[in-house]
Amino acid sequence: MSSGDVLVLIDEDGRIVEWRRQAEQLFGWSAEEAVGRAVTALVREATADGGGRRDGFAAGAPVLVKPVLRGTSVMWQVLAAPDAVSGQDVAILEAMFAHSPARLHVLDHQLRVARVPGATHGPPGTPVEDLTGTHFAQAYDLEDPEKEAAVAQQVLDGGEPVVSRLVRAVVDAPGGFGRRIYSVSYVRLENSHGDVLGLVASALDVTERENAHHRLALLEAVRTHVGQGLNVGAVCEELVEAVVPGFAGITVVEVIEDVVHGEEPPQAPVHEDTVLRRAAFRGPFSAYPVGDVRPLPRDTPFARVLSDLRPRLLSIGEDTDWLTADPPRAEAIERSGAHSLIVAPLAVRGQALGVVSFYRHRQEDPFTQDDVAVASAVCAHASLCVETARRYMREWIIAATVQRRLLPQHSGTPNTLEIARLFLPDPDGGGAWSDTIALPGARTALVVGDVAKQGIGAAVTVGILRTAVHTLAALDLEPDDLLARLSDTAGRLAKACASLPPGDPMCRESLTAGCAVAVYDPVELTCTLARAGLPQPVAVLPDGTSSELPVPPGPLLAETSSAPFPSTTVDLPEGSTLAIGTATAAGRVLAPSGPLRPLLDSVGARPLPELCDDLAAALADDRPTGDTLILLARTHALPADRVRTVPLPDDTEAAPIARRAARHQLEVWGVDEETAFTTELIVSELVGNAIRHGAPPLRLRLILDRMLTCEVSDGASSAPHVKHARTVDETGRGLFIVASLAGQWGARHHQHGKTVWAEQPLPDAGSSG
Fold first, then answer.
1. What residue spans of 434-519 are helical by DSSP H?
2. pTM as predicted
């Protein structure tokens, strides 16, 4: 009602002549009951014992009375004062207090409970009268009463309302206590003069609403975060991180052991002797360590879930009989105070992957049937992720097996190099590799490669490229020539893949790869290098200085570019350390400004495996995607007494001189007579072939290492050609004889001509020297 509305008109005799509808709402009498009566009679009736003719009577309702002149008579008007409240307003307020779904509490200016309208609106089991006069923070079992009292006091002091604040409290519930969530609002009470009277606090129970929101948020978190890893263990760790502590205080994930290794999961029911691996755990006490492998105990809910793939909700108490079947688990449950359990299966298409156990302990609310639905949804998503990881693991294991079977075996460690390898594989699989290949003349080829793909395709490609590298290295090619031919091989393979039917997975495979080749010569103390896409190699010299070797970059293998693979030959003094790595090692280790470059530069004479361990530890926490591989090689010179070099004339005297020099040197080395005789024949044929088809200068070099090598160099670039003994041409048979006598032979071209070599194994390498 508006202030100034006329409610009642009274004549000079004090009798009511008008009684408006607003007066009926405010005072409770109808116009028929009030008109004609003396106003004093109504006042006496209203103030008598048991007064209040009507439930809607507003005792002490503020009104204004003023005289008015009507003709020659003075009449009195009763007007609504500014603070007047209608009976309807009162009725509305009483209905709100009595029937509102929110609990309304009137607090005085000291935050004590002044009124809790409606007997049902106090805390369950607490008489309303027991609350009156109690500070509200102590009247109710709030989880954080001090914080809530501070919020209420702030509203009381400042007047700014607080609306829809979520507050948690503990209330009586069947079987004990339960936690409830309320949406609480505080509004300050003031009278017409602005005096602070207290607060009205409303509390609406929103437990079910908030629980539903929490469940939806949990499922969203599980869908977002579970399944990032590509191995079974990582997926299980993601699962326990997503649900603890938001859904359960303790969670255990146990996966069938064959599934962890990528094998096909069994159909339910699972045999009782099937072993499971504890793949992940979150909680205070664990019955078994993560990684433990054992069958599930019989006659337990865990074993039953794997039998029928149905989730189970169970209470845990002192009389829970199935705990006796697994004493360590029973002890862990008792120590942690677990009282409620959901056991749910990990399964796809009727195949069992494992089982997840969700526990609530100590003060956590017991699980409900709604929680069983949530647990089932969580495990359904996790099951798909575990199955994806299982399939990936199976492919990864097959890829690793294929790669091992397709690759040539590693050559033995050379006498002139110390070799160490740092290899940090990408968890998702990669295609990095390295090789150490023995070459004629005590030389060694160091190869590092990296295929830009993953999985079985990478394994097959690596196997093909490494086989090609070994084949090309056997031809004794220079590094630039070797990379060019290797790129041709990769290009032909890429074309073959591209011509496959569109449905073939290999049709979409990229064969792009990087590779670096270095050939170390322990006699000349030089290293010739070429690279295709990989970072610049680094050399740390014996004096502690280091630098990136000036090896020009070549294109990646199988690229359509016609750019060459330029090579560089550098001097490497004895005791130098050569480092060749993949692109993932460049930024942190090989680059001059890399944070781990000082570790490499300080290698000195320390063992190379120790350096690899230090680098691995430093790279473990922050490593880029992809395989990280660094091949380290410390150089040693071939002892001078293991090499004999003899200049030769370019006439017929060359062969006798070469035979005498070889015979003498073989006697010094203590080579057996049969090998010495064969070596003289080989030297004679190689020198004779050089005189007939080569050009000066001529040189004989004998090298004793793990093999006995004879080399004859000349200044011609023509390639030697073997003629079979049964051909008519009498020339060219010398190399056929060499090929028959030597273990292997070949030729390599260099800037000043060519070198034809032949190797023989030594019957007893230990006796030479």
1. 455-474, 479-498
2. 0.54
